[in-house]
Specification:
alpha+beta, 2 domains, two-stranded antiparallel sheet, 7 helices, 17% strand
């Protein structure tokens, strides 16, 4: 049996070579200029299309609004807890205010709101102080805090108050045992 390798499809446009994966149809190569935004799409078939949007135009503002709506929505798209969505929104808002577009995904906020509520109850410290402290923690450190026995008890109670069913430890143990058999 012979292994096949896929050679990337290459397109030469405007003096630049673009490589396309097997499924990729288009490269997006947009730039901000002194007078507006040049949106350029290079299609797999070699066609190039450009659109210029001048600064200050109504479309420029709508495009910015659409982009920000999408960015904020993407930030908490996978969250199931509304409070985690709020935390994700606040975190992104703070990053954007510092002109930071990206964040390492490993530092996500999922479950952070529940941990925050438990820490407020346990420590008696204020929300903003604890939020600031949690922002400095890695995902692994947050997970460890959530697993600490006193904090875990508070989290379990808070989840029960919210109507979430507790983890069925016996079922979880049985599942693991079945995988090891």
């Amino acid at each position: 049996m012979t292994a096949t390798t896929t050679v990337p499809h290459k397109v030469h446009a405007n003096g630049t070579t673009y490589e396309f994966s097997d499924r990729q149809k288009v490269h997006k190569d947009s730039v901000v200029t002194e007078t507006g935004i040049m949106t350029k799409f290079i299609f797999r078939n070699g066609e190039v299309r450009e659109h210029f949007t001048p600064h200050g135009s109504a479309i420029y503002a709508r495009a910015a609004l659409h982009g920000l709506d999408q960015k904020f929505g993407d930030e908490f798209a996978g969250e199931t807890d509304v409070e985690d969505c709020v935390e994700a929104f606040e975190s992104l808002s703070e990053r954007l205010a510092r002109n930071e577009w990206r964040e390492k995904k490993a530092e996500g906020v999922s479950g952070t709101s529940m941990l925050l509520r438990a820490l407020i109850e346990y420590t008696g410290k204020g929300k903003e102080e604890l939020k600031a402290a949690l922002r400095l923690k890695t995902a692994a450190q947050k997970k460890a805090l959530s697993a600490q026995k006193d904090i875990a008890k508070i989290i379990a109670r808070l989840k029960a108050e919210r109507g979430e069913k507790p983890v069925d430890q016996k079922a979880a143990d049985d599942e693991l045992a079945s995988m090891l058999a």
